[in-house]
Amino acid sequence: MKKNLKIKNNISELDKLVIFIEKMAEDWKIPVKEVFSINLVLEEIISNIIFYAFDDKFDHEIHLEADYNNNILKIMIEEEGKEFNILKVPLPDHLDTGVENRKVGGLGIHLITTIMDKIEYKRTGDKNQTFLYKKI
């Protein structure tokens, strides 16, 4: 059974995301360790959408759809922000550099690609669709 969440592009909406993830984990009996990782990934992606996807100050909707079959969690995130393909962002080349010498940016995407087993992206009309897959 799929689960859906619609939130606005406002940082205060992250509370709804956390509740959505907790309910999803409870219903589908997803282990706590996995829930922590999924929460980290989704908070990173959603906060980036909130801060960078829209050039105006209007409310925009972010839609999440989760499905769990055969021990595979699939999450689709859809929004109508600027085109952004997470798969085309180069991974940071400074991961082994000390924090004080490290360039800002890129670590969130590295975290997402490390935690998730598979990521897909497509642009349909004016909407970004990011698909995340995690074997549980």
Provide keyphrases for this structure.
136 residues, Heat Shock Protein 90, five-stranded antiparallel β-sheet, 5 strands
Give structural notes.
The chain is α+β, with helices and mostly antiparallel strands. It has a single domain (3-135), classed as Histidine kinase-like ATPase, C-terminal domain (Heat Shock Protein 90). The chain has helices spanning 14-28, 32-52, 107-115, and strands at residues 3-8, 61-69, 72-79, 118-124, 127-135. The protein has a 5-stranded antiparallel sheet with strand order 1-2-3-5-4, with helices on one face.
CATH homologous superfamily label: Histidine kinase-like ATPase, C-terminal domain
Strand order of the largest sheet: 1-2-3-5-4
Run of helices and strands: EHHEEHEE
Number of domains: 1
Task: List low-confidence stretches.
Answer: none
Indicate the CATH class.
Alpha Beta
Shape assignment:
globular
CATH topology value: Heat Shock Protein 90
Largest sheet: 5 strands, antiparallel
Mean pLDDT equals: 91
Roughly how many Å apart are the termini?
16 Å
Beta content: 25-35%
Oligomer designation: single chain
**Helix count, DSSP H or I runs of 4 or more residues:** 3
**Would you report the number of β strands?**
5
Based on CA atoms alone, the radius of gyration comes out at: 15 Å
Structural class: alpha+beta
| CATH architectural arrangement | 2-Layer Sandwich
Percent helix, as a range, is 25-40%
